[in-house]
Amino acid sequence: MGAGSCDEAQEPQAPAYTATATADARWVLTGWSEGARRMLGYSCAEAVGRPAAELLAGDGPGAGTAAAAPAPASGGTPAPPPPPLPVPAGPGRDPAEALPWSGPVALRHRDGHRLELDLCAYPLLDGGGCSQGWLLTAESQGLRQRKQDREILERTFDQSPFSMWIYDADLRFWRVNEAAARLMEAGEDEVRGRPFETAVPDPSYVGFRERMRQVVRTGEPARHISFLKEGSGQERAWASSIWAARDESDRVCAVTAWGLDMSEEYWARRRLVLLNEASRSIGLTLDMVRTTEELAEVVVPRFADHVRVELLESLFGNGELRDGPAADPVRLRRTAQRSAGGDGPADGRAGADGRP
Questions:
Q1: Are residues 124 and 22 in the same domain?
Q2: Residues paired with 28 in a beta bridge
Q3: Is 168 exposed, middle or buried (0-12, 13-18, 19+ CB in 10 A)?
Q4: Which of 117, 203, 280, 344 has the fewest beta carbons under 10 Å from its own?
Q5: Could you tell me the residue range of the domain that residue 199 belongs to?
């Protein structure tokens, strides 16, 4: 907005805006923006040339009726503005006195109602660094509310106990919260703008990356479970939800994901599934050998890479089993063997040596 400009733009639909105005060293208004018109109701023609004091809603002397302060004599000190506005540095004064100022101000709308605003005043300096006037700004209630909302969202994102990531449509990192930074051992500044595959080369994340690409292609939310190994070698189960954000053209413009370490719940569920499956798969017949084979089939590869079942040789004899420790040597018969890489034969013979 140039000084003395009276151009008035068409009122935008958004309720969030900033009012701006300019004033000379005597606090006479020299410029008036569309935002100022929306906020206070005065047109540019009505505001420019008016003393700023006339807009104050205070009850003190001069508020709302003050005349323009007289121009200073050559080399003199300009008349101070009405409280609570800051005192400007005029021509010939120390430029250090022309400091930005901000604070609460009560203004009067054109229709008479009172407005409580936070006013900011910035000195307009000439080539010598001396103040020749002021740039005044005030934010609308809608804009202040939007900033407060954004601050709450930022705090919620950063302080979430869940790991959260935001990527652009090309899966470049945009935002990383504190929990995610701890998991990745890299802060947001380190990964921002980097493609996912270069910032996270760990092959354990390949499935997660492909699921995000699916979300970009389809726009549909998805879930994913990743298995990640800690430094100790322990495998952890991470559950993730992934969803897309769309722009005004309904195109995917960003992808958000959050992750939760659900190892305890995951493995507890897996144990319950195993028990349920075991109850339906083991002991379906009275054949002892077949029962051991069923046991091996249930366990591998879910919980073991290799299982071998050996029973006391005496179980296959006609003699009566006795209580107490078995007599040496203890002979075992292998009745079932299963490996994640393929089944090994159960030889059906007594072990080659005694085993305690």
A1: yes
A2: 51
A3: middle
A4: 203
A5: 160-261
